[in-house]
Amino acid sequence: MCASRPCPPGRRSPDPLNTVLAVAAALVSALLFALAAVAQQSSAAAVPHDRGVALLLRLVRDPRWLAGALGDTAAFGMQAVALGFGSLLLVQPIIVTQLVFALPLAARWAGRRPSRTELSWAAVLVVALVLFVTVGEPTAGVDRAGLVQWAPTGSVLLALFAGCLLAARTATGTPRALLLAAATGIAYGVVAALTLGVVDTLSDGPVALLTSWETWVLVVAVVGGTLLQQSAFQAGALGASLPAVVVGAPLVAAVVGVTVLDERLATGGPVLVLVGALVVVLVVATVALARASARTSARA
Question: For the whole model, what pTM was predicted?
Answer without folding.
Answer: 0.72
